[in-house]
């Protein structure tokens, strides 16, 4: 497999690690959008949120929370952006599930949300909600 994150996990490519657990690794982003920007990655390859087993996702989420708290405290960040992308249309570049943990400060110049907030069509919103509800798989 030619996955850069799998190569990092295997030790074939160096990374500045901040967390290395049985199922999850976290390392500093080498193209950071802010000081302290890191990536939290499941060790078992899953391309996106739709492919990862729920148990691995739960472990990943716990690691994200741990890393977000640690970087917030370490750098005295005023906030933390948690960003996870799925598929090319959402700007996912590396096809291995990963979560960006990005420390934030007021007026830091970053803008994660570039979409314009405008009132939606409530009838359409209700129709879409109904379709989504019909497609939600009940928890087991």
Describe this structure in words.
The protein is α+β, with helices and mostly antiparallel strands and 140 residues long. It has one domain: HIT-like (HIT family, subunit A, 2-Layer Sandwich). It has helices spanning 4-9, 54-75, 122-135, and strands at 17-20, 24-28, 38-42, 79-83, 99-104. It has a five-stranded antiparallel β-sheet, with helices on one face. A hairpin with a 3-residue loop joins β1 (17-20) and β2. It starts with a helix and ends in a 5-residue tail after the last helix. The model has no long low-confidence stretch (mean pLDDT 92).
Summary tags:
HIT family, subunit A, 5-stranded antiparallel sheet, 5 strands, globular, 140 residues, alpha+beta
DSSP summary: helix tally: 3
Strand order of the largest sheet: 1-2-3-5-4
Second rung of CATH, namely the architecture: 2-Layer Sandwich
Supply the CATH superfamily name: HIT-like
- Distance from N terminus to C terminus (CA atoms, Å) equals 33 Å
How many runs of DSSP E, i.e. beta strands?
Answer: 5
**Oligomeric organization of the protein chains:** single chain
Summarize the structure.
The protein has helices at residues 4-9, 54-75, 122-135, and strands spanning 17-20, 24-28, 38-42, 79-83, 99-104.
Q: Helices and strands in order, then pairings?
A:
Blueprint: H1 4-9, E1 17-20, E2 24-28, E3 38-42, H2 54-75, E4 79-83, E5 99-104, H3 122-135
Antiparallel strand pairs: 1-2, 2-3, 3-5, 4-5
